[in-house]
Amino acid sequence: MPPASSRAVDNLDDDDYPAYTMGRAAEMLGTTPAFLRALGEHRLITPLRSEGGHRRYSRYQLRIAARARELVDQGTPIEAACRIIILEDQLEEAQRINQQLRTAGRQSPPKTSA
């Protein structure tokens, strides 16, 4: 197992590492803890919990929360903002898979008839 200091550095580069407390996350986003709780209630983000049960957020989750805040600030209801972000994510994933399939199709050898 790598030394603790090496693991700590790896965690700094990990987008999914739950490094931020709810208070710090809310401060960074310029929002309230209640807004972050609402995103969890609408299943947009699910923070990990510390041993003491406190919510912890990753950088990836903060980017999603920032997108939600952007939509809400533009007047979109929070429920709709969460649904929009989920659909955007699904579309992005489908486009990524589609591109992989196209690339794989170009790389396969042509079929020969018997």
From TrEMBL:
Locate the HTH merR-type domain: which residues?
A: 19-87
List the SMART domains hit by this protein, alphabetically: HTH_MERR
- A Pfam family annotated for this UniProt entry: MerR_1
Q: Per the UniProt record, which residue ranges are transmembrane?
A: none
Entry-linked Gene3D superfamilies:
1.10.1660.10
Name of this chain's protein: MerR family transcriptional regulator
